[in-house]
Amino acid sequence: MPDLRSLSFGGRVLFIRNFKGLSQYDVGHALGFSERTASLRISQWETGFRNPSKETVAAMAKVLDVSEDMLKIYDNLNPNDFFCELLWLEELLPGLELSLLEDSTDNQLFLDFMKIWKRLKNQLKVGRITKKDYINWKLNYRLPESEEK
Known about the structure:
Blueprint: H1 9-20, H2 24-30, H3 38-46, H4 54-64, H5 79-92, H6 108-125, H7 131-139
Helix pairs in contact: 1-3, 2-3
C-alpha cells in the first residue's frame, strides 16, 4: 500500500496513482498530454509546482476512477468536503481512532457519516473487506445528493 505524505492536491494524486498502479505517463497520456509532456505534467502537479484547472481535475478523477471530491481543493464549509478530508486524514495518520458520540443529536449528518465509516473500518479490521476495498470505498465516497449544501 502506498503512503500518503501530504493532504495537498499533489499528495493525494500521488497516493491514488500509486494505489491504482499507474505511472505518471499513464495518467498524463490518458488526460491527452503528448508522449513528451505526459509524465512531466503529472509530476508538476504531484510536486505542487503547478495546479490543474477544475475541468482537468474532473477529467483526472475519471481517469483514476475516483470521486472528483477526493481530488478537488476543499471548502471546509461544505460537509462533503469535510468528510473527504477526514478520510484522507486517516491515511496521513494511520493510528487515528474513530469515536462516536452516540447520544448527541446536534449533527445527525456527521453522526451518520461516522457510523458508516466506523462500520467499514470494523469490517476491515475483522477481514470482511480488504484494505483495497476499504480504500476504494474512501476514494469514491460521496455525501448523498439530498444532504449536500
